[in-house]
Design brief:
Elements (H helix, E strand, L loop, with lengths): L2 H41 L17 H4 L3 H12 L1 H10 L21 H26 L4 H9 L5 H6 L7 H18 L2
Helix pairs in contact: 4-5, 5-6, 5-8
Length: 188
């Protein structure tokens, strides 16, 4: 092997080693970041073993007129949004197996298609109410706001780093409070 070829091989080996070191550092940094998130999540578990919901706090009752229990009602109602969307997307069939027995059976009081249609209308209204309230709270960041109020654990930090929310944390939390205030007024 010539000296020139030996130098090229040696440089290639060095580049491969540097690339492996960089990949290892990135992987290690990511693992530490994930472990840090895991530790912070574990720190949010209260003494009873339940989830303390991290940094989610009810609104100031004197400022917004929403009691602590009413806030939690709205909060958990919004978390059902994903379930409602899934049900609307996948539950479109009313066909079910019939049980064949010698015993007489009572009628459940309605047609399965009618019940499904009524359920779908109710779910669509619920989803539309949440979406329209988010748009009314702030049309510029409504997609970020919608994600934050309908999924558990979505923080401003996540919205800023992953979804690149175009506002400050003070603005975001102000719009989030406005969302729950508007939702309270609309849902009474």
């Amino acid at each position: 092997m010539s000296i020139r070829n030996a130098c090229i091989v040696e440089k290639s080996i060095l580049l491969i080693r540097q690339e492996r070191i960089v990949r290892a550092r990135i992987t290690e940094g990511y693992s530490q970041w994930v472990a840090g998130i895991d530790l912070r999540t574990r720190a949010n578990i209260d003494s009873k073993g339940g989830d303390s919901l991290g940094n989610v706090r009810p609104l100031n009752h004197s400022k917004y007129g929403i009691s602590k229990n009413r806030f939690w009602e709205l909060y958990y109602w919004c978390l059902q949004y994903g379930e409602w969307k899934d049900e609307l997307k996948y539950k479109t069939d009313t066909v079910g197996s019939t049980e064949i027995t010698d015993m007489p059976t009572g009628h459940n009081g309605g047609d399965a298609t009618q019940q499904l249609a009524m359920r779908r209308v109710m779910l669509e209204q619920n989803c539309r109410l949440i979406e329209q309230t988010a748009i009314e709270a702030d049309p510029d960041i409504y997609q970020h706001l919608l994600k934050a109020v309908t999924e558990d654990g979505v923080t401003y930090r996540y919205l800023n780093m992953i979804m690149e929310i175009p506002c400050s944390h003070n603005t975001y939390y102000d719009r989030r409070r406005k969302f729950y205030w508007l939702l309270d007024k609309r849902k009474k």
